[in-house]
Design brief:
The protein is α+β, with helices and mostly antiparallel strands and about 60 residues long. The protein has 2 helices and 2 strands. The longest helix is centred in the N-terminal third of the chain and has 10 residues. The chain is elongated.
């Protein structure tokens, strides 16, 4: 595993490779808003965003409260 000091000295491509290849990458959770899921299928769900504090982006994580 590479620490932040070693990673800062690496070229950009190698830095990205070490970040992507890590077993676990922890990203801080950022609450964006509230949505209502109204139709679910096996691989897809329909939802309506009821409120948001900032723009919602594609591939944001969705969790149950």
């Amino acid at each position: 595993m590479t620490d932040e000091v070693e990673r800062a000295k690496m070229p950009f491509r190698e830095r990205m490779r070490t970040i992507i290849n890590q077993d676990r990458l922890t990203i801080p959770v950022n609450d964006v808003g509230t949505m209502l899921v109204y139709k679910t299928f096996d691989r897809l769900s329909y939802a309506v965003i009821l409120a948001s504090t900032e723009p919602v982006e594609l591939f944001n994580d969705v969790v149950s409260p």
